[in-house]
Predict the 3D structure of the following.
Amino acid sequence: MTPGARVAAAIDVLDVILAGAAAEQALTRWARGNRFAGSKDRAAIRDHVFDALRCKRSAAALGGAETGRAIMIGLLRQQGADLAALFSGQGHAPAPLDEAEREHGTPPLEKADLWNLPEWLVPAFEISLGPDASDAARSLQSRAPVSLRVNTRRMTRDAVITALANEGIHADPNPLSKTAVTVADGARRVRASRLFQDGLIELQDAASQEIVALLPEGGRCLDYCAGGGGKALAMAAAGRQVAAHDIDPRRMQDLPARARRAQATIDQIDTASLEATAPFDVVLCDAPCSGSGSWRRAPQAKWLLTPERLEHLIRLQDDILDQAIGLVTPKGWLVYATCSLLTSENEDRIAAFLDRHDDWICTFQRRFNVTDNGDGFFTAHLTRA
Ligand SMILES: C[S@@+](CC[C@H](N)C(=O)[O-])C[C@H]1O[C@@H](n2cnc3c(N)ncnc32)[C@H](O)[C@@H]1O
């Protein structure tokens, strides 16, 4: 496909997303309907679509409307691309810009446009991040680093970096976590690599890895909200005895295969059996959240979050912490984590927990901002006084 044809495809996919489809589904559907497109084409279209979603407001301002075409015009204008060459009307390229489109477009001036956030989230970012709010919002407009977790039980980080280089993947140590490397080149080759197939590396954000590295010492650990099991696998690789639970067990369906690949043992526990298997020395609650710390990876989510949805998540976070208390040994640890940047999902939840449970104390809290090394995260360690 020509660069222009890829832009035309991205416009079509964006229109489907603007009409209410999930980004991943819209991209998959486009690929199924256009089997002539190769993997490089699909990757380029995906990059256009995700770049556009990260910068939807500023791109719409620069493109003069909130349509797939206007957003792509605005995005490419923002990126300094040659619009006349891409919108040539030749072959499958989009039609040339009309006069209004050539003249249209105002530079983003409002904070919500500059920060590429829904208006109601601007004050929430300001309250949560103070002077760092602008940097955080702007960081969410660029692509996230591709980070890998080295299975350090089986291979050192240096050895993995050398072995990756032999497979054409250039990676560097990530300063955020001793188990993390960041891929500088060759990210698309990771899943097919021998190291990945043999369970010596996993795709995992570096801050997510560090949350596991920071966990208090303890014999039996429960990943209470395990999801796909990224943190459970990291705990097992750190030599911990790990059980994984999720209220929706389907979320853990890939975990047995991932654990086998990593040569790790993880017990999967369903909700009905939890009480019988408790107590645990460490219970990690990696709670459902806005995901605001990882909106670089899932940019559509920032436009779908509403104040009502955030309120619902906050109630869920409180409930999960209250449910998990009963699973912790008397001298054990309850660890809270989110990939959120918002105080209302982080420090405020810990303060509310301590208000409800005056026999508990918080011994440690850490916030990870969105940086070139990792996603935004928060964690807190709770124990009985
Ligand atoms: C942020 S995700 C977990 C991500 C995962 N820990 C990882 O590192 O890949 C939150 C998970 O919590 C689960 N969940 C929601 N409500 C829950 C509840 N009441 N008890 C346990 N798990 C719950 C969701 O199904 C979801 O998979």
